Amino acid sequence: CSSVAPKYVYTPLNHLKDGTIVNLYGVVKFFKPPYISKGTDYCSVVTLVDPSNVKLTCSLFSGNLDSLPKIYKVGDIVRFHRIKIREYNGQMQGITSGGFASLTFDGTVGAPVVPRTSSRVYTFMEEEQKTVEELRIWAASNISISGPAAKLSGVQPMMFFDLTCQLVGKAKVDGSSFLLKVWDGTKCPYPTWKVPVEAKDLEGEKVLLHQLRNLVVDILVYDNHVRLAESLKIGSFLRIYSIHTKQASADNEDVSHIEFHLHGGTCYGRGIGVLPESNPDVKELKAFLESVDLTESQNMEICMVLFHLSVYCFAVLTDHQDLSNTELKTITNSPAPQQYRIRAKLRSYKPQKLHQSVKLHCSKCNSLQEVPDIDDFDIILHNSAGTAPNPELHNTSWYESVTWTTQDQKKREIAIHFVKRDEMLQHPEDTLLMIEGGTVKEIWKLAKRFKCVIPVRSTKDDLELLDLSAPFLLQGNVKYYGCKQCSTPKPMKNLSSIAAEQQPSWEPTEIAQVLGIELLQYVFIMKFTLVDETGTLNAYLFDYEKFFQIPASEILTSNFLQQKMQMTMNTLCPPGRKLGDLPWLECFIRSYNVRDAMKNQVCYQIFDTTVADDVV
DNA sequence: GTTTAGGCTTTG
User: Fold this and answer.
1) How far is the CA of A32 from the C1' of B7 (A)?
2) Is the CB of residue A81 less than 8 Å from the CB of residue A23?
3) Which of A161, A205, A407, A422 lies in disulfide reach of A150, CB 3.0 to 4.6 Å?
4) Residues A577-612: pLDDT tens digits?
5) Minimum-distance nucleotide, CA of A148 to C1'
6) Mind listing the domains of chain A with CATH numbers?
């Protein structure tokens, strides 16, 4: 007896006869992924169609899940051996018989023809390959394979869809329902419900579940799906068929959320399929999941890097064209207040050290103060480091906290609170963070990498700002201060209202406002001594940014801007020149009265004047 | 040896 492979004969679906056992090919038009039947076996119902355009629905049973056809989507192609044909309700029906075996192929034209099977031995040769390829081409124009697939990012409040995803957690809920926690790397655009379960009932990597909590959705599966769901392995890739999204709201919620249900029963192919890692959709999903930017870990990483570093190394143009020039003598002889246009020379100015011209101004109480020394900030930070971060204030609805202890001898406790938007952490360049226990150097570095940094300390029930001699906010190179007189610091949680905005811009003025801080403005204050043929006049420059085209807030931390300002002054008032050789300036001044107890004095201020770009 | 389901319109 020779061991030649038997020659199989395949019956077209329009030639099936009651009571026969046949071999056949078909394209999957509909299927129910294997589920636990009410009997002793798994069951899978598969409807096939072939170029004869006859449909055949098969009920396939097996005690062994693996020996049922591995169908993943409509359009897959199957080859059944030894399937029994019976007539039922006037139609042919296929049913497993002894020795049933199946091969399944991806139905995509051009995809490799690789059979999915549990049989160790099967015949598959050139002729079979040709049959599969022909069926693929036929199916391509005769079967609609556009299933109701969706990504979590594409779900709507009321739909049924198939989800390809990874299982990251599961939990018992009650006898008739079971919870699956899954993700596909995209974010559901609606708030999603969280099914309350006992911590001890939740299976899955806790750290991962926490990390992914904004991307994971809870799917509640019912009745006949429960037993299969229980048997699923964490980490496995699933396709869950015909998930129902439902909009609902709980009593304690202001906004409605989306619920994901896999209802009981199997109509519409409702069920759960486990996909192997070799599945092309799984390969694609895996690659995507690996690329998902977990901003949280990114933020954390940047902080770690920064902290490790610090541990281990230790002619003047004008508006107002209607005004004509006025001689200085006329101005000094006239009562205030008035506005003038003048043509004069800048004989001298104060302060000579330009950085000394920068002050902080409160527009509410009109006070001026020196910019605090950086050492003051260091002292304040040092003093507040005595207050340990309060763990009860960590991880609230609007920020995410990380803490650690520095590795140096000081063993400082550091807590960083990243403000979230819409439950999600943002990219570092958009993130506002609050820090406890940092040094000036560390805070400075953080301010360069993150949108804003606010140094805080813990109290019993909230985070609070430090002493207002310290900057209450750092953004890039700029330190923002509040007026001690006019500020009434409010709880840090007021920031959450900004965090809830569509796209928080984190403007210092807005932050200051919600925190009850009267923001101090950086200004240049200078005294210009102006002369013309008729006399001399001292005029003050009070300028935020217009005169030099340099923001006063940035000059202290920029050598480049300091040089630019020095060059401007050297052009307006070249050192070592005789008066006659100085350039003429045109600018606007206004006179005003300053009264004190003794006398009334008239002062002059430069206004609405900008040094032209071509002057420098 | 038998039963399971028999897709057909889902919803807790």
Assistant:
1) 7
2) yes
3) A161
4) 888 888 888 888 998 887 766 677 788 999 888 887
5) B10
6) 13-142 (2.40.50.140), 152-291 (2.40.50.140), 302-358+522-615 (2.40.50.140), 374-508 (no CATH)
